[in-house]
Every structure is written in C-alpha cells, then in structure tokens.
Amino acid sequence: MGPLRGQQRHRWFVALLIAAALGLPATARGAPGPSLASRGASPGPVTGLAVRGSTVDVAALPGQVQIVFYADDVFRIWLSPDGNFTDPANSPPERDGAPAADVVVKHDYPGVTPQVTDAGAYYRLTTRSLALRIYKARLRFALYRPDDQTVIWEEAVGPVWDGRETTQVLVRGAKEQFFGGGMQNGRLSHREQTIKVSVSYDWNEGGNPNSVPFYVSSAGYGVLRNTLTPGSYSFTTPVLTSHEEHRFDAYYFVGGLKHVIDRS
Fold it and tell me: How far apart are CA 199 and CA 183, in angstroms?
C-alpha cells in the first residue's frame, strides 16, 4: 500500500497521539510508526501560566496559548505553534479587491478575570458560568460547569497540527448531538457524520454551498472557529474538527442550547 496522504495521513497522526495519551502502543490503535509522528506536533507539558486581566498566557512548548475571557460564558482559545499569534480572518486583506468581511464582528465584550486555582494535575480557570481545566502533564483542555464536577466537553489530546491542518480532538458524549455548520443540505443532527466547512457550489442533498465554521452541541456549548480556511468536522468517536491552517483559534459559548444560539 502506498504512503498515507492528505486527510488520511492526518487522521493516522491523530490516532497515534490519542494512543500515546492513553498509554497504548501504536499498534493497539492501528496507528503508523514514529516516522509519521515526526511530521506533526501537539503541545507539550505546561511550563508557565500568567494572568493579564482577562487574558491567560500558557506556555506548552512547542506551542504558546492565549485564553481570553470576554464574558463569564464566552472565551477564546488561541494557539500558536511557533509563538507568532496571527488572526488572518479578521485582518485587512493583503491585496486590493479581496473580501474584507470579518469572521468575528462583536468586540464590545466587557472582559472578566478568571479565578486561577492550582489543582495539582491541572490549573482551573473559573468564572460564574464555567471552569476550564488546563492539564499540565501534556497540555489539553476540559470544560466543566463552575462546580468543576460536571463536564461539558473534554479533549482527548491537545490540539494537533501537522503543517497542513490543525485539529481539535474531543471526547464525544454518550448521547451528544451536534448541529450547525451553516448550510449542510439534507442534514440536521451531525452525530456519526462528517461535514465540510467550505464552498461546494452543490445545492443538492449532501452539499455545503453556504457552510460556516460554527456548531452547537446538546451538551450545552457552541464553537466558532475563527478562520476562513476550509475545514472538516467529524462528529464520530472521538470528535475531530480540522481546518487547513497552522494555528488554532476558537471561540466558545457556554449555556443551554437555546442560550448558546441566542448568544451567537
């Protein structure tokens, strides 16, 4: 069989990292060998955390992360694999005549400073509406209700990048349903499905002519990926949400499903 390419290669790399995180040998998951792992990366152990008002800086080499709390129930996880934070989806176009629309149009959030607690295995960032865990041994995130007991979502491993795309890997709830993605013709709930976040020019069933990088979950949260690059969201086990860029940038909205939709 020939070498792995594109999406298939990336999925194998994600599988390898999940196997490593769970303490399994690569062969237990059917993952390829170390040569493939060397083509990609994920954050390492947390080596530093600093709070600057509503912004929390996290060092987890080779990645650098900023977490920005816009409100008690709205925050952003912004990861740079090389320490250079960019925001191309909300930057002026580089050429005349290029589209100038921004992905994020609301900028008047008051901002809140989270309470920071060192819980041993993880740091806990708490507001009135949520508790965000930052696991230390190898950076990954988990979102809980303020009691730090009721999970909303949890990463199996930290964000994964391979130079072609960056993926968030989430543990899927036993009965969790997923909605959104803009115009996904012929589909409502996306559980067990993969949707494309791109322009397909296909108005028939299965097409995605007006997709958007936003979805909501019946677990009570919504995610806006702050990007204009093509993406692919697989709501399988685990959930894999990828975009073709060497960065990770997502806004999270917390609350009941109706509240999430209203706030977005």
Answer: 10
Q: How far apart are CA 31 and CA 134, in angstroms?
A: 27
| Structure letter (DSSP) for residue 256 | -
Q: What are the residue boundaries of the structural domains of the chain, listed by start?
A: 1-33, 116-263
Tokens 């990609």 sit at which residue?
40
Residue 216: closest CA among 169, 261, 249, 184 = 261
Spatial contact of 233 and 215, defined as CB atoms under 8 Å apart: yes
Q: The CATH number of 116-263 is which of 3.40.50.10330, 3.40.50.720, 2.60.40.1760, 3.40.50.300?
A: 2.60.40.1760
Q: What is the pLDDT of residues 62-84, one digit of tens each?
A: 889 999 999 999 999 999 988 88
Q: Lowest mean pLDDT: which of 70-74, 128-132, 205-209, 236-240?
A: 205-209
**Could you report the per-residue pLDDT of 186-218, keeping only the tens digit for each?**
677 899 999 999 888 877 777 777 778 999 999
Contact between residue 47 and residue 141 where contact means Cβ atoms under 8 Å apart: no
- Kindly report the backbone phi and psi dihedral angles of residue 19, in degrees, each rounded to the nearest multiple of 5, phi listed first: -60, -40
